[in-house]
Design brief:
The complex is a heterodimer. Chain A is α/β, with parallel strands linked by helices. Chain A has helices at 9-15, 34-47, 61-70, 109-126, 139-145, 148-165, 180-187; strands spanning 3-4, 18-19, 23-28, 51-56, 80-84, 100-102, 132-137, 168-174, 192-199, 202-208, 218-223, 226-232. Chain B has a 16-stranded mixed beta sheet that branches. In chain B, helix 5 (107-120) runs parallel beside helix 7. Classes of the chains: A alpha/beta, B alpha/beta. Chains A and B meet through helix 4 and helix 6 of A and helix 3 and helix 6 of B.
Chain lengths: 233, 390
């Protein structure tokens, strides 16, 4: 299996690469910059020639592309697939593009699943790309519309697909939005967690499960579109 | 009978679904199975039927737009298409539909609306559940299946045909078992060929209690616009030098390319055809003996063979039979394309059969590839043999 790196130097050094087929949850409080972190990981991956599928449940697909443009991060659009679960719920007439395919709603797990599979097939079979990131941003929105068993079943299938295709799955979860039991249930499906916590005005990040020991907590700041880590505790 | 409108499927089901019966499209996750239900619905609306669509994972307007991707305008059918809106209340949106499920997480609320809609449509209508899995997710597996049994009974009395789309997420073993074996009159399985990714899709009849089912599985593709097409990944066209193989492929194909030199194929021809619900890739071999190693390479994994011969040149028929051996075509469905029938001295089909000494059941079709005469007939016959028709 291929090995991947997060593109976050200090964490990468600590975990020494991630095995292809791993599924990782990123969990942290609201407004802690999870999205920027995920976009950074995707951006670094794309730069290395990987492909990425982003499932967006909170904002239209176009906004995801705009984020990269706005921050002057040039991305190869033919390596990017976006599954947009928002636009169709807004009642705006719309159609799919080569990069953006739209599911009916965050409830439409069947449709989301089909579109993920289509992108994975396209990258693997047609474009011959062997490394792909699948990012679901966020599981929390999906959990607002469907119960935990339903989401678990959905993830059971797709974490399996990630394993089979040697990709990396990243799943964003809002801390504090779900009961601890729900989070614990979901954690069973993941190989590792990127944890974010807030102490007073300071944000800290670490990984668990991706190496024998959890990484140290690193203080970080978001500067523009950059994630900047300070030295570990 | 209500037709499914899916190529080949109605044939496998002995003409379609009898009134009062239920059918479920049992989709494996990640496979685009929803289109089956949509195609069935559209097919019947076009034929003048009345349909009820129960939506549970998208609002009715979004759903109507989804049909448009396939070139199907379902807004034109007006009151012949009723919507039961089991989605809007879930997200707290207003609905403009007449049948709105007030509490999509309560199966009784769903039953109430389905029952009302069923009473408002004429006998023999189609009731289509857009996503049974979503309803199960919202209302619970057991409760939903109990309700489904009741809906099927209600439909039977009214002679409606009930059609369900269902995504087989990893539910309870017992739930999946009863869906596959007990609750529905007919189960169509729609799956993916997966290795590291899903790279092919197929469907097959698991059960149909009104007809004797021999297990068939068909590869399919989805065209936008167009909908479901049976997909045949490889049909081989072979035959002696200058028999008209390339002309045959170019005449038949929607698009085609040849690798040739001075008009003679030296590597291969490739064509793609979309015709009458079928989508096929066609590969042509060169004819000259010095290319025999290439022929072997090209012919692997073919599903059927057109053996093209020049009807005026019986001396080449031995070479033709030899080529069939090289391609290992004897085990596959094949037909003989008796080409150049417009030229003087062309042998008749019977004469060619005598020369070839082949079994009676190998069809010989006379063609003039350059003017497309007989080529679609040849395609129909071979595809029928490949897809297990009579």
């Amino acid at each position: 299996m291929e090995r991947y790196s997060l593109g976050i130097e200090k964490l990468d050094k600590n975990i020494n690469g991630i095995r292809g087929g791993s599924n990782i949850m990123i969990i942290g409080p609201p407004m802690s910059g999870k999205e920027t972190i995920v976009n950074n990981i995707v951006y670094k991956g794309l730069k290395m020639g990987d492909a990425a599928v982003i499932v967006t449940t909170r904002e239209p697909g176009e906004n995801v592309v705009d984020w990269f443009n706005y921050n002057n991060l040039e991305i190869p659009l033919d390596h990017l697939g976006i599954v947009d679960c928002v636009t169709k719920t807004l009642g705006v007439p719309t159609s799919d593009t080569a990069t953006i395919r739209r599911a009916s709603s965050p409830v439409d797990l069947t449709g989301i699943g089909v579109k993920i599979s289509q992108f994975l097939e396209e990258f693997w079979m047609k474009k011959n790309i062997r490394k792909t990131w699948l990012c679901i941003n966020s599981l929390s929105t999906i959990l607002m519309y469907s119960n935990i068993q339903t989401v678990f079943r959905f993830l059971h299938v797709f974490t399996g697909r990630v394993k089979a295709s040697g990709a990396i799955g990243i799943y964003v979860v809002e801390d504090g939005m779900h009961d601890t039991q729900a989070v614990a249930t979901l954690k069973q499906l993941f190989d590792g967690v990127i944890e974010i916590r807030q102490e007073n005005d300071i944000y800290l990040i670490r990984t668990t499960g991706l190496n024998q020991k959890p990484s140290p907590w690193y203080e970080y700041t978001i500067e523009g579109a950059e994630l900047v880590l300070k030295d570990g505790e | 009978m209500v037709e499914t409108g899916i190529p080949k499927l109605d044939e496998y089901l002995n003409g379609g679904i009898p009134k009062g019966k239920s059918l479920i499209y049992f989709n494996h996750p990640g496979v685009e199975g929803d289109v089956f239900g949509m195609q069935t619905l559209y097919h019947n609306l076009v034929k003048g039927g009345t349909c009820v669509y129960v939506t549970s994972s998208s609002n009715p307007e979004t759903l109507k737009d989804q049909f448009k991707e396939f070139g199907w305008n379902i807004r034109q059918f007006g009151e012949r298409l009723l919507m039961v809106d089991g989605y809007s209340s879930l997200i707290g949106a207003l609905s403009t539909e007449n049948y709105v499920v007030s509490d999509p997480e309560n199966i009784d609320s769903m039953t109430e609306m389905i029952d009302r809609a069923m009473k408002d449509v004429p006998k023999g209508s189609i009731i289509m559940v857009g996503s049974l899995s979503t309803i199960m997710d919202l209302c619970g597996e057991e409760k939903t299946l109990d309700a489904v049994k009741m809906w099927n009974k209600m439909a039977m009395v009214k002679e409606h045909v009930f059609i369900y789309n269902f995504t087989a997420w990893p539910y309870d073993e017992s739930t999946l078992k009863s869906i596959k074996n007990e609750i529905f009159n007919c189960v169509i399985s729609i799956g993916g060929i997966a290795e590291r990714v899903i790279f092919g899709q197929y469907f097959g009849v698991l059960k149909a209690d009104w007809s004797k089912v021999e297990v068939h599985s068909m590869l399919f593709r989805i065209l936008r616009p167009g909908g479901i097409r049976i997909y045949i990944p490889k049909i081989l066209v072979t035959g002696p030098f200058n028999a008209g193989k390339s002309s045959f492929i170019h005449s038949l194909s929607t698009r085609a390319v040849s690798v040739d030199r001075l008009g003679t194929t030296i590597a291969l021809d490739h064509g793609h055809i979309d015709y009458k619900g079928f989508s096929a890739d066609i590969f042509g071999t060169p004819g000259q003996e010095r290319f025999d190693p290439i022929i072997r390479m090209i012919s692997g994994e073919a599903m059927g063979i057109f053996l093209v011969v020049d009807s005026t040149l019986p001396k080449d028929f031995i070479r033709a039979k030899q080529m069939l051996e090289i391609t290992k075509g004897y085990g596959l469905p094949y037909i003989i394309v008796a080409n150049k029938q417009d030229l003087p001295g062309a042998l008749s089909v019977d004469e060619i059969r005598n020369h070839f000494n082949i079994p009676e059941d190998v069809p010989i079709v006379s063609t003039v590839a350059t003017s497309k005469k007989g080529i679609y007939e040849a395609f129909d016959i071979l595809v029928e043999k490949i897809t297990g028709g009579n």
